[in-house]
């Protein structure tokens, strides 16, 4: 295999796949790859004989990017082969390269160059995850989910995971912590509404309700990461009054009312009710502007 084709795979994945130096790009169009000369080589195989990898961690593919890649393939051909494993003499399962496979289908190709590998399910998952993690355009939540899957399904520790993906343990930990954020914030990060810096700042807040409130302000006001960090520091410096007796736990009905009010005011509303049924409603605010927003909602 030429050095140019080796480099197309990327150093980490190429080392993982341990590709052979034999290349067979001109296999017969009418025959499947033989058992003896296919493994580790580049072979032309029928797209109709390839099933999608069930372990594919990537769930979203940009339609325009696929169209652009398809147009490029029509002109230049597919430069980087996909990787498959043989499941029977005339069927294969995709290990990595689903985006390339989709683009080739759009381009109307009947065959595709592929590395044919032997791999068990865990190896398939690990290969697919590593290939996706190495992509520059993978969003932070997709990376975090891939890391978590490698830990859960490949039985890896964080240190071992770091070695597999060439990242230090603190980087791996920072990504995994993103999965502790409320789902609405994870979706916002996935969709590009907030950045990784915003998400890391939010992780310094222990309370999910406050996280959601700050997130809403980030989206509404276009707050910078530095501004969010300042808000978080102000919250952490605020006195935490725990004097006197702790209030009784709220009933299910009152808890629901408290949650509904928190959602309505985008602030951490608290209901305090004593055993006689008396109590109060607290609506905290983080700034004069925030107070003005709440008063406006109350028609003050």
From TrEMBL:
Q: Which InterPro entries match?
A: Chromosome_partition/occlusion, HTH_ParB/Spo0J, ParB/RepB/Spo0J, ParB/Sulfiredoxin_sf, ParB_dimer_C, ParB_N
A GO molecular function annotation here is: DNA binding
Q: Name one GO cellular component term.
A: chromosome
Lineage, top-rank taxon, reads Bacteria
Q: Which residues form the signal peptide?
A: none
Keyword Chaperone listed: no
Q: What are the record keywords, sorted?
A: Chromosome partition, DNA-binding
Occurrences of domain ParB-like N-terminal (ranges)? 43-133
The biological process GO terms on file are: chromosome segregation
SMART domains found in the cross-reference section = ParB
Q: Which Gene3D superfamilies match?
A: 1.10.10.2830, 3.90.1530.30
| Family membership noted in the UniProt record | Belongs to the ParB family.
Query: What name appears for this protein in its UniProt entry?
Result: ParB/RepB/Spo0J family partition protein
Q: Which organism is it from?
A: Mucilaginibacter segetis
